[in-house]
């Protein structure tokens, strides 16, 4: 089985939010649901007009980090949050009791309550849609015009993500917490 | 089946129930219970949208009130155990009432949490068939379920004056209760993401504050029962002893809190020190937790060396207000610091501490739970003889 991860060449991000739209469309996220599943963080321009540092204005896409050592999985009282065979952190909405413990335990604020199922939901790397259909991309990756996102199997040394992680420096978020995220930010 | 044979109770006339001797307390209990029911109805219509909780602050007043009730329950269990489990004669007089109190407070806690958990029925099913053994919530919930069972059995044997069996079930109930309660502390202690909550502090702090809460409540129960009259000798003796123990416990609590705050701010660790400094600038910490919860009751005990038990009743009332703030702050403080990785500079979300204030519905259900507790207590005092001293075997 694969061990899916994503590398983000975040400096290429132009904040067009095509990824957010594609994600919502693919996964049937409610219209108007802001920052559900994925979002683009905006670092505002530093300085006072007219002395603005244009280079300081960066965009950082983020989402569930699909941690190898996910705190949300550890704290779930009913195993509603689980690792699937591809190492993707998933939520079984039939088992979720909405105790919100996972929302509190997630250091990345990646989880939200889906108003239709009244359970916690999050990015699952399109496991219910694209991956289930046998495709090997996510909607956000496929739609990104500047190729910010590289999705693939971390265990396959020949996959594009494995190659790029070998070749380029990268970092993960809140590494000190020991959650071992599978979202890598390329420097 | 004759219920009388299982647990001795008084046969009541409807008049006795409908015409309580203290109309003020009856009114308070009815109004609070009515608010609870109204709150529940609003919740059933609007779901969590009726609450002030948000994605950034998913736990609110109802979690705090649940903790408030179960801390009370564990505390009363500890206080009650002095007499019937450990066999200290001086405390025997308060055992029945304390154990009964521990049952009704946890029931009230369960009533409140039932409307915070999104799917309580599903919880009972999947807690059994798909247990998350690494989850502190699973252990807390399961152990509290077992604890309640043992406390009920203990109470039945207490009412039958079967002290031998009451002792066995009481001891198991106490141990399971302590395990459950420290697990409730673990619910916060396990939150690696929340640096002010993470660690071993809360599991031990919960046991300590439970004991303190139990003593406050035993004072309130007897203070109410003997309002305007002198305490009987055996009760007065138990209460005086408890007041002295309370002095020690409060001193330990102040010591705990001091070190928590000092280790929190020391070194200026980002996030942790920021949050602790924020807490140290709030009135709810200084006036609620410190002044009401610890300092005033401590001074009352210190001044009279624990003998002013009438004053201690009022100090305990103030103490319970402090305990409420301790629970509320505990829940709120853990969620103060925003987790919005990479979003903190977004124009919609300025970098600041997360805001939360309970909605009216949350207040109705949360504080309404006190009404349920009062009604159950009233029924208990009518149905059961909570005062007769059990024969000592």
Automatic annotation (TrEMBL), chain A:
Q: Its domain of life?
A: Bacteria
Q: Which CDD domains match?
A: PsrB
Chain ranges of the 4Fe-4S ferredoxin-type domain = 4-34, 55-86, 87-116
Q: Which PROSITE patterns does this chain map to?
A: 4FE4S_FER_1, 4FE4S_FER_2
Q: Does the keyword Nucleotide-binding apply?
A: no
Task: Specify whether Iron is a keyword of the entry.
Answer: yes
Keyword annotations from UniProtKB, A to Z: 4Fe-4S, Iron, Iron-sulfur, Metal-binding
The record's annotation in InterPro entries points to:
4Fe4S_Fe-S-bd (IPR017896), 4Fe4S_Fe_S_CS (IPR017900), ET_IronSulfur_Cluster-Binding (IPR050954)
Please state what the protein is called: Polysulfide reductase subunit B
TrEMBL record, chain B:
Family membership, please give it.
Belongs to the NrfD family.
Task: Note the superkingdom of the native organism.
Answer: Bacteria
Q: What protein name is recorded for this chain?
A: Molybdopterin oxidoreductase
> What compartments host this protein?
Cell membrane
Task: Please provide the record's keywords in A-Z order.
Answer: Cell membrane, Membrane, Transmembrane, Transmembrane helix
User: What InterPro entries does its record include?
Assistant: Electron_transfer_protein (IPR052049), NrfD-like (IPR005614)
Organism equals Hydrogenimonas cancrithermarum
Pfam families, per this entry?
Answer: NrfD
Membrane topology term reads: Multi-pass membrane protein
Q: Which PANTHER family does this one have?
A: PROTEIN NRFD
């Amino acid at each position: 089985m694969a061990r899916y991860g994503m590398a983000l060449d975040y400096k290429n991000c132009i904040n067009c939010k095509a990824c957010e739209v594609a994600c919502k469309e693919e996964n049937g996220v409610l219209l108007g649901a802001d920052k559900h599943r994925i979002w683009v963080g905006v670092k505002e321009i530093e300085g006072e007009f007219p002395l603005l540092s244009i280079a300081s204005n960066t965009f950082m896409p983020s989402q569930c980090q699909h941690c190898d050592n996910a705190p949300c999985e550890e704290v779930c009282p009913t195993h509603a949050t689980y690792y699937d065979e591809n190492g993707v952190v998933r939520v079984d909405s039939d088992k979720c009791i909405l105790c919100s413990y996972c929302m509190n335990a997630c250091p990345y604020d990646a989880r939200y309550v889906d108003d239709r199922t009244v359970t916690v939901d999050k990015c699952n790397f399109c496991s219910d849609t694209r991956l289930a259909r046998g495709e090997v991309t996510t909607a956000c990756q496929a739609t990104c015009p500047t190729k910010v996102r590289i999705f693939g199997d971390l265990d396959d040394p020949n996959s594009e993500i494995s190659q790029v992680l070998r070749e380029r420096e990268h970092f993960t978020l809140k590494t000190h917490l020991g959650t071992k995220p599978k979202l890598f930010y390329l420097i | 089946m004759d219920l009388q044979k299982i647990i001795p109770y008084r046969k009541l006339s409807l008049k006795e129930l409908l015409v309580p001797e203290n109309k003020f307390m009856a009114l308070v209990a009815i109004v609070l219970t009515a608010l609870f029911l109204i709150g529940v109805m609003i919740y059933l219509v609007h779901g969590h949208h009726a609450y002030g909780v948000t994605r950034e602050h998913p736990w609110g007043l109802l979690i705090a009130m649940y903790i408030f009730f179960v801390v009370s329950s564990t505390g009363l269990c500890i206080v009650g155990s002095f007499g019937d489990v450990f066999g200290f004669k001086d405390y025997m007089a308060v055992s029945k009432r304390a154990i009964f109190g521990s049952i009704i407070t946890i029931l009230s806690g369960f009533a409140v949490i039932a409307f915070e958990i999104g799917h309580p029925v599903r919880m009972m099913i999947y807690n059994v068939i798909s247990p998350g053994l690494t989850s502190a919530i699973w252990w807390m919930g399961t152990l509290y379920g077992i604890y309640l069972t043992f406390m009920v059995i203990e109470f039945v044997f207490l009412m039958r004056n079967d002290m031998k069996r009451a002792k066995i079930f009481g001891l198991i109930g106490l141990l399971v209760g302590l395990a459950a309660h420290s697990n409730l502390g673990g619910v916060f202690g396990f939150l690696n993401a929340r640096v002010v909550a993470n660690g071993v502090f809360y599991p031990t702090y919960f046991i300590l504050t439970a004991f303190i809460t139990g003593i406050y409540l035993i004072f309130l129960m007897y203070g109410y029962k003997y309002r305007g009259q002198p305490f009987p000798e055996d009760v007065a003796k138990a209460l005086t002893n408890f007041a002295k123990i309370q002095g020690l416990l409060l001193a330990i609590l102040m010591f705990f809190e001091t070190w928590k705050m000092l280790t929190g701010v020391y070194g200026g660790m980002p996030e942790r020190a920021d949050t602790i400094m924020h807490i140290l600038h709030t009135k709810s910490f200084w006036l609620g937790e410190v002044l009401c919860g610890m300092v005033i009751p401590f001074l009352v005990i210190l001044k009279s060396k624990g003998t002013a038990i009438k004053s201690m009743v009022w100090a305990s009332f103030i103490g319970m207000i402090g305990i409420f703030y301790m629970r509320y702050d505990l829940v709120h403080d853990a969620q103060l610091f925003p987790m919005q990785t990479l979003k903190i500079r977004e124009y919609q979300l300025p970098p600041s501490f997360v805001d939360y204030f309970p909605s009216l519905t949350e207040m109705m259900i949360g504080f309404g739970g006190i009404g349920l507790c009062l009604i159950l207590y009233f029924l208990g005092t009518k149905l059961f003889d909570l005062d007769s001293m059990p024969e000592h075997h």
